[in-house]
């Protein structure tokens, strides 16, 4: 279908996911192509971002398109009280696709309903981050050779972490086993656990981050505790450094284990892990460029 939005990974079938991953591999082999020549892409970032914004903008530039937009909403008419609807309608006059990050859950879905211009959700509150999910899936398939029948251990902020919520949905097509490792305050929400149960996906919950759990994993997905999601800063201080991965904890892990992280990291991965060949988070971020090239072409119906 031409000119479709990417709001949620829930909207993607298994075939959609595999098509975009295959196209991502094509862009990794050849990232510089003039497929967006003459196209304008608007980046509307109502919330701070480094990797997501820069990789999307780099993707547009490598594909020959042009970027307009903002990364500081205080410099826009939204600071004067302009509604999100009016902002989206106004920008739709200028751009062929809109990439939007917003602090409110559901903002991207709403934007897609008020305009015919494709919307790409670059993160809406603690809800979804589908482009991150696709680059995560690409990284997993690239390192494991397949997405099927893998054990994925998710560690840290599982309550507010939109990347892990989206990854559960994305992996659900491939018969995964999940291990959720979090303190009680940050445990995986019931909604995601009920999703697993409805889809026959096995999962375990742990409150201790142990080598025994690591050693039974194919993918170790670390997350930071997100200060910006807490209303109680004392609660944040209690949990921010609960789980830290050190290199010694990987010594008996499976040879195929890879450590992923959506970044930015704080203290949850010690720097001594960086030189371990199982550390994949920097290359994971690089995969974001190729994935976002594939996404932009897909939502605009451009053959790659």
Structure, explained:
With 304 residues, the chain is an alpha/beta fold. It is 36% helix and 15% strand. The chain has ten helices and nine strands. The protein has helices at 14-29, 51-62, 84-92, 107-114, 130-144, 162-171, 190-198, 211-214, 233-239, 281-299; strands at 40-45, 66-70, 97-102, 119-124, 151-155, 177-181, 202-206, 219-222, 258-260. The strands form two sheets. Strands 7-6-5-8-9 form a five-stranded parallel beta sheet, with helices on one face. Strands 2-1-3-4 form a four-stranded parallel beta sheet, sandwiched between helices. Helix 2 links the parallel strand 1 (40-45) and strand 2. Helix 1 (14-29) crosses helix 10 and helix 5 (130-144) crosses helix 10 (281-299). The protein is globular, with a radius of gyration of 19 Å. The two termini are 15 Å apart. The mean pLDDT is 91.
Q: What are the SSEs and their pairings?
A:
Elements: H1 14-29, E1 40-45, H2 51-62, E2 66-70, H3 84-92, E3 97-102, H4 107-114, E4 119-124, H5 130-144, E5 151-155, H6 162-171, E6 177-181, H7 190-198, E7 202-206, H8 211-214, E8 219-222, H9 233-239, E9 258-260, H10 281-299
Parallel strand pairs: 1-2, 1-3, 3-4, 5-6, 5-8, 6-7, 8-9
Helix pairs in contact: 1-5, 1-10, 2-10, 3-4, 5-6, 5-10
């Amino acid at each position: 279908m031409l000119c479709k939005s990417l709001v949620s990974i829930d909207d993607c079938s298994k075939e959609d996911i595999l098509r975009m991953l295959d196209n991502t591999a094509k862009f990794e082999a050849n990232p510089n192509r003039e497929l967006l020549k003459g196209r304008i892409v608007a980046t509307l970032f109502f919330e701070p971002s480094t990797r997501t914004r820069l990789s999307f903008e780099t993707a547009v530039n490598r594909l020959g398109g042009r970027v307009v937009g903002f990364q500081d909403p205080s410099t826009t008419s939204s600071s004067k009280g302009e509604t999100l609807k009016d902002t989206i309608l106004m920008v739709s006059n200028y751009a062929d696709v809109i990439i939007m990050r917003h602090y409110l859950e559901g903002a991207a879905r709403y934007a897609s309903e008020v305009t015919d211009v494709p919307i790409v959700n670059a993160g809406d509150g603690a809800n979804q981050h589908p482009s991150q999910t696709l680059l995560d899936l690409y990284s997993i398939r690239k390192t494991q050779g397949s997405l099927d029948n893998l054990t994925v251990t998710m560690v840290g902020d599982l309550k507010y972490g939109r990347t892990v919520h989206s990854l559960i949905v994305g992996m659900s097509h491939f018969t995964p086993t999940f291990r959720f490792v979090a303190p009680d305050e940050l445990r995986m929400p019931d909604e995601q656990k009920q999703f697993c149960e409805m889809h026959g996906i096995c999962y375990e919950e742990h409150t201790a981050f142990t080598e025994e759990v690591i050693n039974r994993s194919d993918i170790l997905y670390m997350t930071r505790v997100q200060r910006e999601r807490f209303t109680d800063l004392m609660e944040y201080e209690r949990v921010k450094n609960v789980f830290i991965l050190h290199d010694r904890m990987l010594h008996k892990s499976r040879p195929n284990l890879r450590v992923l992280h959506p970044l930015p990291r704080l203290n949850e991965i010690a720097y001594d892990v960086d030189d371990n060949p199982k550390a994949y988070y920097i290359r994971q971020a690089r995969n974001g460029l190729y994935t976002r090239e594939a996404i932009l072409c897909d939502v605009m119906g451009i053959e790659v």
